Automatic annotation (TrEMBL):
Region (Disordered): 1-20
Natural source organism: Diplogelasinospora grovesii
Record lineage: Eukaryota, Fungi, Dikarya, Ascomycota, Pezizomycotina
Primary subcellular site in the record, as a coarse category: membrane
The entry's keywords: Membrane, Transmembrane, Transmembrane helix, Transport
Transmembrane segments: 45-62, 82-100, 112-134, 140-165, 177-196, 208-230, 282-303, 315-335, 347-366, 372-394, 406-426, 438-463
Protein name: General substrate transporter
Length: 489
């Protein structure tokens, strides 16, 4: 691919000719691409990249959160999940999920997304199939540990990959579509699980075992397809599928570089990679995601049981009633991301989502009418799940440098895994059927996120003001410096 640095910048003092157009990032040469060609390029990128990783994330979410469906489908009785055994089986996944995430963003850069993501998807799908044949709860817990190792590399690698293809105010909608495809599609896993349950008795296997087996087979097939459909980083020379040509990729790299100045990674240095951890803002973003995923995982693991125990719905109804709140969440998710991209807002989107949770959790937990409590489920599900891409975009807009981006993606998602552990524990079996301590914990997480956004907004205002006055650069390290970069509130 020809170097984009060899092409001179367009002269911004003159208006472009009518048949040509400057990129939507100021100062970027259009590489003789018409507006129609530019839109077509980005549409091809969206289809090949966003939809592919979204579909793969669908099975990732489905495979890590289908315990709730299998538990009420007979697994609890057959494997004798008494006491805290169900919580143990839920949370052991996150131990290895957290530990094995930091290396993933380095590995995906070295070997490429197609091999890395395709291989781990096939392997964890095979692990899911194995869960359908366990005879003891300890065997299930052991396979969940292996599942955590394999899934650890998926989400941070996807977040990192998406951030390299789009400018700061394009990534919000793409993050929302990526997560929405996975979230909404996996929401219908309850309906899918209910249908698969009807296979009970086939080959002398229980219905809950078939849930693991069939969903595992789907994952393996999608992992194989992912190898052929996934794309590499825009600056990579490993491209084998020419869905965009060299000139088109050069234009993509140029516009991302003009927006952030970090399209190409610096040579890897472990010291420089770990030095990113000295920036307190990195941990604030990670804590935002911890609080968010505590709520989302608590819902994913325990909502079927809340619907059957707290609200009195049947098992079949509970499996199906999980889907509508997630469908509503998809609408809210895309709407808030669209507003955030259009008006260059990030913090207010996070606050809005958390307010939905703060309003919805008391309704879900404490109202006397089951129908009204179910309405509260809509608000909580929408707020918590919309905040996943919201927090992703908030973080992505306010970091620079490829290895800093890689480090932040790993820590960000690792804290999300810690939130998964917390979400596995907040709704304890001894608190059934009302789970009041868990509800209070989720409210506290939402409130803490509002406070974190407030603190970050004050810090951004101070730092941007110092940079405007020429008192301080926004980055501590020369390789991450870009004149004109400002934090997004």
């Amino acid at each position: 691919m020809s170097s984009i640095n060899e092409k001179p910048q367009a002269d911004m003092s003159e208006s472009p000719a009518p048949e040509r157009v400057q990129s939507n990032v100021a100062g970027v040469d259009d590489f003789d691409l018409t507006p129609q060609e530019q839109r077509a390029i980005m549409k091809r990128v969206d289809i090949r990249l966003v939809l592919t990783v979204g579909a793969m994330y669908c099975v990732s979410l489905m495979d890590r959160t289908n315990l709730g469906a299998t538990n009420i489908a007979g697994m609890s009785e057959e494997l004798v999940l008494i006491g805290d055994r169900y919580s143990i089986v839920s949370l052991v996944f996150f131990v290895t999920y957290i530990v094995f995430q930091p290396p993933s963003t380095i590995i995906v850069r070295k070997i490429g997304p197609r091999i890395h993501l395709g291989a781990i998807t096939v392997l964890w799908g095979s692990t899911m199939i194995g869960m359908g044949f366990v005879r003891k709860w300890e065997e299930l817990a052991a396979l969940r540990v292996i599942l955590g190792i394999l899934e650890a590399g998926f989400f941070p690698s996807c977040v990192y990959l998406l951030s390299t293809w789009y400018t700061r105010y394009e990534v919000g909608k793409r993050n929302s579509v990526f997560y929405m495809v996975g979230c909404v599609a996996s929401a219908f896993a309850g309906i899918l699980a209910y249908g698969i349950m009807q296979m009970a008795g086939l080959a002398n296997l229980s219905g809950w075992r078939w849930i693991f087996i069939i969903e595992g087979i789907i994952t393996v097939l999608l992992g194989v397809a992912g190898y052929w459909l996934l794309v590499d980083f825009p600056d990579s020379k490993r491209q084998t599928w020419k869905f965009v040509g060299d000139r088109e990729r050069a234009w993509i790299c140029a516009r991302v570089n003009a927006d952030r100045g970090d399209v190409r990674p610096q040579p890897f240095s472990m010291a420089a990679y770990l030095r990113v951890g000295t920036d307190w803002k990195v941990w604030a973003y990670a804590l935002l995601f911890f609080n968010t995923t505590t709520i989302t995982y608590a819902l994913a693991y325990f909502l079927p049981m809340i619907l059957t125990g707290n609200m009195g719905f049947s098992v079949g109804a509970a499996q199906c009633l999980v889907a509508p709140p997630y469908a509503f969440a998809g609408i809210v998710m895309f709407a808030t991301s669209w507003v955030g991209d259009k008006y260059h807002l990030r913090g207010p989107v996070v606050v809005f989502n958390m307010l939905l949770c703060i309003i919805g959790i008391p309704i879900m937990g404490f109202h006397s009418n089951a129908g009204v409590r179910y309405f509260g489920v809509f608000l909580v599900t929408a707020g918590a799940n919309s905040n996943v891409p919201g927090a992703m975009s908030y973080q992505a807009n306010n970091i620079r440098g490829q290895w800093k981006r890689a480090f932040c993606s790993a820590t960000f998602v690792s804290f999300g895994g810690i939130g998964g552990i917390a979400g596995s524990l907040v709704f304890r079996s001894q608190d059934a059927p009302y789970y009041k301590p868990g509800l209070y914990a989720c409210i506290a997480c939402a409130l803490l996120n509002v406070i974190i956004v407030g603190v970050l907004s004050i810090a951004f205002k101070i730092l941007n003001g110092q940079a405007d006055r020429g008192e301080k650069e926004l980055e501590d390290h020369e390789e991450d410096y870009q004149p004109g970069f400002r934090y997004t509130y």
